[in-house]
Automatic annotation (TrEMBL):
Residues 123-132 have a biased composition (Polar residues). InterPro entries: Uncharacterised_PGPGW_TM. Residues 1-26, 108-132 are annotated as: Disordered. Pfam families: PGPGW. This is Uncharacterized protein (TIGR02611 family). It comes from Microcella alkalica.
Length: 132
């Protein structure tokens, strides 16, 4: 029997994939494919362990790179927060740290914005003299 002559499987309420198929339709093709791939990985213990290790290595490396880049001008903090977001896909502790870090970054940005606005209000605009 060839693969073309098989009838498609029809899911019914109560079947294992019934709600997953409905969720996939709402999420879109890319997210549903990623979710399906992750579910397939979770079913295989060795593959799941390798996946989790890979996520931890990539996330930890990204956090480390961000920490190293923090003293330099540029997006070091954002890179570190991105690494925490990667780690947060597999660790609840990292997810909590990421939420706290993002909240702290937002407060710091708001404080910097308010200081800049206060400075602008204090200094009167200077008139430029035309050069002769």
């Amino acid at each position: 029997m060839s693969a073309d002559s098989r009838e498609p499987r029809i899911l019914r309420p109560g079947d294992p994939g019934y709600t997953a198929a409905d969720d996939a339709r709402r999420l879109g093709p890319v997210r549903s494919a990623a979710g399906a791939a992750r579910e397939a990985i979770r079913r295989n213990p060795r593959l799941d362990s390798a996946y989790r290790t890979g996520v931890k290595v990539v996330g930890g490396t990204t956090v480390g790179l961000g920490v190293v880049l923090m003293p330099l001008p540029g997006p070091g903090t954002l890179i570190a927060l991105g690494g925490l977001a990667i780690l947060g896909t597999e660790s609840e502790r990292a997810k909590k740290l990421n939420r706290q870090g993002v909240a702290l970054a937002k407060r710091a940005a708001a404080a910097a914005r308010s200081r800049r606005e206060a400075r602008r209000m204090q200094t009167p605009p200077t008139e430029t003299q035309p050069r002769a």
